[in-house]
Amino acid sequence: MKISYYPGCTLKSKAANLEAAAVAALAALGIDVEEIDRWNCCGAVFSLTADDLIHQVGPVRNLIRAKEKGAAQLLTLCSMCYNTLARANRIMRDDAVKRDTINRFMDDEIDYAGEVEVVHMLTFLEREVGWQKIREKIRVPLEGLRVAPYYGCTLQRPAEVGIEPFGSFNLMTGLLSALGATVTPFDAADKCCGSYQVLNGEAGARSTAAVIVDRAAAAGAEALATSCPLCEYNLGKQQGRLLEAGQIATAVPTFYFTQLLAVALGVAPESCLFELNDAASLDLLKTKNCLVAA
Amino acid sequence: MCDADNTTTKKTIRVATGDRAILPEGAKTIPIYIMGKKYDVPETLTIMKAMEFAGFKFLRGAGCRGGICGACPTVYRMAGDYKLHYGLACQTVVEANMYLAQIPFFPANRAEYNIEEIGGGAEAIHALYPELFRCVACNLCTKACPMDVDVLGYISALKQGNIKKAAELSFDCIQCGLCASRCMGEIPQYHIAQLARRVYGRYIQPRAEHLRKRVEEIESGKYDAMLADLSAMSKEELEKCYVEREREPDMTSPGAWQPKETRYL
Amino acid sequence: MTLTITAQTISIRSIEQLQELSGENVKLCMQCATCTGMCPMTAEMDHSPRKVMHLAQFGMLDRLSDSNTWWKCASCHACTVKCPRGIDIAKVMEALRQRVLRTNKNYIEPSALPAERIAELPQIAMVAAFRKLTS
Fold first, then answer.
1. What is the pLDDT at residue B14?
2. CB distance C133–A200 less than 8 Å?
3. Sequence-ordered list of residues with C-beta below 8 angstroms from that of B96, at least 6 positions apart, any chain
């Protein structure tokens, strides 16, 4: 099976681990990932003013690339890219006036009316593969790994593009359970990590990240699974600084859910680029004996 | 043109006086609007030639006149149409009812850096030009480029950290500044691209191995004896050497030909 | 807090402008403060989201001209999904930012960010921050 794929800028460099693990895991599941040509940055955040048009051009251009390839679905991994592309897609589908103006402005491209469906990998896995089939393909069950599924904000909000309803965490829970891990739900699973506020006096981003890590630890989690490079930065890379400043008491290593999926499927750890995670992440997997291919 | 002998006909000598120019015989003129003012110019001229025909003298805004130096970027519009077009004055031929103006220089931001110190990572480029992240992919830059460079393509590549791709895509850039003049993110695309090409050349592009080896050979003295021999020859001896030299035939496959004189190999 | 409402203290026009820019009707707000309860960034804000909505619906935004509330907003939409009146408060916050940004002002300065930070952060952080906090 083939699927058209939109990476987003960060997945080609700083978050190459999110992508590498996903591509390897999907290959192990018999799915070929085809990156669309000539894609550009989607803009990362959706512009919220009523009159906004120009900020939709970037995401729509990518959707047009997918349409040109004849793709019915466009797979995304990064939560922020998913959110931005999905919301821009809805405008092109539902708002006739904006659709017309944007199509006219983009006179160097074919017209677009929301024909492609933007899909996040969690939705894709459940729908096209199913947890049962994944369970059957597991070679290294993540037994004894207590992992908290962390959604962040852009996977579920606003409701019109949420991968599942606000307050429900079945997709990531279902996946992590299928991998054999012990899912540790916690009450900050959809609390924003601080997002771009890390660039506006990082105190705010650090305090909200500290709350999330603390709540995960308090619920008994020893790992956090995330889907977004900015969440990974705020919760993962910043953990060293949070510990040093005494803002958190316990470290909770962070992983992309794709890395956990790949490891459980028996994909070679080198394919998951753990060197881009905090060192603690790889160490945790080693102590849990999760890196030995069955 | 003056006739040297105008005794037979009463031919009027036509010379240029003041702001009137001499038209080639039979030339058709068309109206163009330079900075809003109408001029009638011969229809076969480029914008640059037409402006000079009209009496403008270029102190800035002209250079190689060959489409490669980037000094003469011009924006123009056709009467009755809102659409803007972009081109080089030295390459674009005038059309009737063209409304034009030049942008000989655009004050786009240029970062200061020492290429030897910044290293070959994309982070260096990101840190020197953080405005790169203001790109909204509107594509006005690509539309404005007179060299058909995929400007959005290389800006996207740099955001992703792909310096090689940006260097290759921006190869034809002549630094005219039209892209920056249209950018809503205030990004100095052509300066960033130049940095990318410099980083690529200095840190990423593979070195020519055969060149390095040859330099090593020279420095090790391999060619010293040959040069000494040649320097010691008389003019006649040199001429003889030259005329009798062996030369690898064109289109020979590598390694297929060996000279008879192997002393110097 | 007592708000004195006179023709001099309120600006009807500012309410209209805010509603036009956000597409939301701020007058629907019933001051229940659920938004403030959901918001992860209130510790950093001078004024709570509820207070901002209050002043907005009375056309008294000039009292908040130095406020950092909408600048500390992370656009997480937690306020939006729980508002019992169905107001998209994230859009109101965006409109409050754009009111200032569209006058050609930047709230953060890209060129003033430390190079080591930029080198460390994922690109989406810069793209998002510049999108929300620069003009």
1. 54
2. yes
3. B30, B31, B32, B43
A141-197 pLDDT per residue, tens? 999 999 999 999 999 999 999 999 999 999 999 999 999 999 999 999 999 999 999
Q: How many domains does chain A have?
A: 2
Helix, strand, coil share (%) of chain C residues, nearest 5: 55, 0, 45
How far is Cα A90 from Cα A130, in angstroms, rounded to an integer? 26
Residue A128 lies in a domain: no
Residues in C touching B127 (Cβ below 8 Å)? 115-116, 118-119
| pLDDT, tens digit, 9 for 90 and up, residues A7-22 | 999 999 999 999 999 9
- Could you tell me the CATH number of the domain that includes residue A243? 3.40.50.11810
- State how far residue B179 is from chain C, nearest Cα, in angstroms: 19
For chain B, 265 residues long, the average pLDDT of each consecutive 10-residue run is 50 52 74 96 92 93 95 96 94 96 95 96 96 93 95 95 97 97 96 98 94 95 92 95 92 90 81
Mean pLDDT of A28-56: 95
pLDDT-derived band at A100 (thresholds 50, 70, 90) equals very high
Is it true that domain B29-102 has CATH number 3.10.20.30?
A: yes
pLDDT in tens, A213-232: 999 999 999 999 999 999 99
Query: Same domain for A191 and A58?
Result: no
Distances from the Cα of B102 to the Cα of B34, B70, B106, B188, angstroms: 9, 12, 11, 18
Number of H helices, E strands in chain B: 10, 5
Q: Residues of CATH 1.10.1060.10 domain(s) within chain B?
A: 122-204
Residue B6 pLDDT: 47
Chains with at least 3 CB pairs less than 8 angstroms from chain B:
A, C
How far apart CA A236 and CA C120 sit, in angstroms, is 13
Can you tell me the distance from the alpha carbon of A122 to that of A160, in angstroms, rounded to the nearest whole number?
17
Give me the residue from C110, C116, C123 closest to B131, CB to CB: C110
The torsion of the CA quartet C78, C82, C88, C89, rounded to 10 degrees, works out to -60
CA distance linking residue B188 with residue A190, whole number of Å: 39
Chain A residues contacting B via beta carbons under 8 Å: 9, 12-14, 38-41, 43, 54-55, 57-58, 61, 106, 108
Question: In this complex, which of A12, A14, A40 lies closest to B137 when CB atoms are compared?
Answer: A40
Instruction: Sort out which chain C residues have CB atoms less than 8 A from B160's CB and list them.
Output: 123
**Reduced DSSP (H G I as helix, E B as strand, rest coil) percent helix, strand, coil of chain B, to 5:** 35, 10, 55
CB A147 within 8 Å of CB A179: no
Judged by CB atoms closer than 8 Å, whether chains meet at C111 and B131 is answered as: yes
Residue A190 has which token pair?
């959809």
The separation between CA A292 and the C-alpha centre of its own chain, rounded to angstroms, equals 25
- Counting as contact any 3 or more CB pairs under 8 A, the partners of C are A, B
State ipTM: 0.94
User: Closest approach of chain A CAs to the CA of B139, in angstroms?
Assistant: 9
Could you tell me the residue range of the domain that residue A25 belongs to? 2-121
> Is A134 within the bounds of a domain?
no
Q: In what order do the strands lie in the sheet with A223-226?
A: A182-183, A146-149, A223-226, A254-256
Which residue among A12, A54, A106 sits closest to B160, beta carbon to beta carbon?
Answer: A12
CB A173 within 8 Å of CB A149: yes
Q: How far apart are CA B56 and CA B39, in angstroms?
A: 11
Q: Does C118 touch chain A (CB under 8 A)?
A: no
Domain B122-204 has CATH 3.40.50.880: no
φ, ψ of residue A19 to 5 degrees: the values are -75, -50
Cβ–Cβ gap A13/B152 under 8 Å: no
- Look up the CATH architecture of domain C12-103: Orthogonal Bundle (1.10)
> Do residues A58 and A47 touch, judged by C-beta distance below 8 A?
no
